Amino acid sequence: MSANPRSMTPSQVRIPAGDAMLEGDLVLREDASGIVLFAHGSGSSRHSPRNRRVAATLNQAGLGTLLLDLLTPAEERRDLVTGESRFDIGLLARRLVGAIDWLRSDVAASLPIGLFGASTGAAAALVAAAARPDDVHAVVSRGGRPDLAASVLPRVRAPTLLIVGGSDPVVLELNKQALELLQSEKHLVVVPGATHLFEEPGALEEVARLAADWFTRHLGGTHGDR
User: What is d(CA 136, CA 127) in angstroms, rounded to the nearest whole number?
Assistant: First the structure.
């Protein structure tokens, strides 16, 4: 991919995934050591300010990022009424697999791939990691619902980091249960005082730091030199 090696300007991309065409924002420098594909959570989109802040930290660490809408605009409008598609983990995971295959066939043919999932997007990321074990090298879940991927967790080979707010007790317990099912390298980090959306001062910055550490360790990058 031809780009300014220091460029952080996102490029809009369209990704075929089954019968859908997905919209995404790609940042990929020529010297990137890996790329992280984001799976947003319930009712969110690639424009999520939380995911964008995490993505910016990963970009600074020398990693590419792809923020992706897993639903089409028509599906998003329908989902606002029914709320069904955002919990269709099978559908979301198939879309992620399509995006992984697109990266492999196009802009990131040889780069290690990581997945960052939030809320229900974390479950989809883990299902996709199990489906593409040779392509997905690391997974990070922020306030995720890995329990919704319980049946595939023992098959996930990618090193997996689960980040949960200390003031999000229900999700914390679900993550503890999911951690027991994972057989790969795994770690659970509790951010003290943080609630589900990590809106407290410094909470999201801690998520971004933890994610950058995990991805640079398993994908490569320069986080330790910043």
Answer: 11
Residue 98 within any structural domain of the chain: yes
Q: Which residues contact 135 (CB under 8 A, 6 or more apart)?
A: 100, 104, 113
Q: How many domains does the chain have?
A: 1
Is the pTM higher than 0.85? yes
In a domain, 2, yes or no: no
Q: How far apart are CA 153 and CA 186, in angstroms?
A: 11
d(CA 95, CA 183): 25
86-135 pLDDT, tens per residue?
Answer: 678 999 999 999 999 999 998 888 899 999 999 999 999 999 999 999 99
- CA separation (Å) from 207 to 7, 68, 165, 192? 24, 19, 10, 11
43 is in which domain, residue-wise?
11-220
Both structure tokens of 221: 């990058």
CATH number at residue 184: 3.40.50.1820
Dihedral sign for Cα 84, 122, 49, 166, please: positive
Write b or e for each residue in 171-196: b if 16 or more Cβ atoms lie within 10 A of its Cβ, otherwise e.
bbebbeebeebbebebebebbeebeb
**Confidence category of residue 226, pLDDT binned at 50, 70, 90:** very low
Is 28 among the domain residues? yes
Please report whether residue 58 resides in a domain: yes
The tens digit of pLDDT for each residue in 58-96 reads 999 999 999 998 888 777 777 666 665 667 899 999 999
